[in-house]
Amino acid sequence: MKLPIYMDYNATTPVDPRVLEAMMPYFTQDFGNAASRNHEFGWTAEDAVEKAREQVGAAIGASSKEIIWTSGATESNNIAIKGVANMYREKGNHIITDVIEHKAVIDPAKYLEQNGFRVTFLPVDKHGMVHPEQVREAMTDETILVSIMHGNNEVGTINPIGEIGKLCKEKDVIFHVDACQTFAKQPIDVETMGIDLLSCSGHKIYGPKGVGALYVRRKRPRVRCEPVIHGGGHERGMRSGTLNVPGIVGMGKAAELCVQSQAEEIARVTRLRDRLKDGLFNRLPEIYLNGHPTERIPNNLNVSFLYVEGESLMMGFSDIAVSSGSACTSASLEPSYVLKALGLGDDLAHSSIRFSIGRFTTQEEIDYAVERVCAAVEKLREMSPLYEMAQEGIDLSKVQWAAH
Amino acid sequence: MAYSSKVVDHYEHPRNVGSLDKNDVNVGTGIVGAPECGDVMKLQIKCDAAGRIVDAKFKTFGCGSAIASSSLATEWVKGKTVDEALQIKNTEIVKELSLPPVKIHCSVLAEDAIRAAIEDYRSKQSRLAGAETAAAGSR
After folding, report:
1. Residue B105 is part of a domain; what is its CATH number?
2. What total of structural domains would you count in chain B?
3. What would the pLDDT profile of A285-304 be if each residue is shown by its tens digit?
4. Residue among B59, B64, B105 minimizing CB distance to A385
5. Which is the catalytic residue, given B85, B94, B106, B113?
6. Is residue B135 included in any domain, yes or no?
7. Which value does ipTM take for this structure?
8. Any domain includes B138
9. How far apart are the C-alpha atoms of A95 and A110, rounded to whole Å?
10. Could you tell me which of A79, A255, A104 has the C-alpha nearest to residue A174?
């Protein structure tokens, strides 16, 4: 077993060697510009891009014509949200999303709010789920767009996208889904789920960074987005700029590989994730699972270790790469907005760790992580005044803290 | 953000972790911070009859820098009189541990913890003195 161990697959994934191999010729040999329509170099690049478009489309039951290449999911989300808002502003000015979306959805929505749109940020339940009834109740005649994520990147909860999509279809409202964490890794069908726009990214699926895609429905209804980046009219006018051919080839290959092994990989990763969960929960008292107990992406485990602060806990197993909802890990000194939206107190939010595993995670690594994490929690609890007070029977919620 | 080697050393080998008897009149206890803020420090001192700190213990809920700051504080107060211990400044902790700006509040908290422990010790001592005077007066 090689150290350090990577358990931050929700943040990014390594490029699969098969993906890298597929990309390589497009750097030096087949380097043409896919927009060069009059020579061999351009045709070769264009063929590669179109093949990748099919691979990405196939992962979500879409036609290749409905895939727009972008620089990543942040850009895809920006085109989807700002592009639809600007294109359909005559029709209405209301947008519905929720409070635990990625910042790449929340920030464009807030930007629109400052520019004359009304945005409803739906709350989520204690498991981090948005319910279709909430969306129904929030809809008005002015609603033009609903944007709800598929799998949450922090707590892993999977939303009932199909039901929300059906509702949007009934009300003739455009439905955007940020599927960064689930694209190609979970079954998605834009037809049965009623999805009109879907954002995804290369680097979450063992492809390269710097490439992403946006699915834009072409019929029933034909969705149009005003471009965010102008110049040259590439990608059906929705995203100008010379295509990142090696990146696109890599994303296509990565999507194809994920889809090929999807069912087995879901089963394998679920088993490893549950082994990690059981290992921690069987040994440590007073730890809590964040996110939905069953409706969650298979590779995510988010746990709060009461009485122990997240950043110091990560220091205790520095040979395992994870992330924390603790304030101390961010520049803002505020704990995770996602965990707070689930109703976690700041103390539990500060005590959270996100483990996320993937294609290259082994059982040996899981067992090592269980041992290291438990030892670190036990050591830090011995050092924790909160643990000591709790052991003495003091109710920590009733203590008058000297806040600073 | 990488931690300084001194922070890592204090985190891995914390000095003086533990608790003293908080009911002992010669022990002062300071608890500062709040769980919502992500750090709580408990720092205790034990003084001899001359007011010199002969022992110190800490327990901290917080990031590595908070643990290191309180660990260092217990090291520094030991052997000092309470008056000398009050002279310890958070900036000295920042310097010793090479804390980055975002972690300065950890050192402030450690300084506060020293002050709170000394305050508690002093209030116990003055209560004791008051009780002794009262007992003497009633005789």
Report:
1. 3.90.1010.10
2. 1
3. 999 999 999 999 999 999 99
4. B59
5. B106
6. no
7. 0.92
8. no
9. 10
10. A79
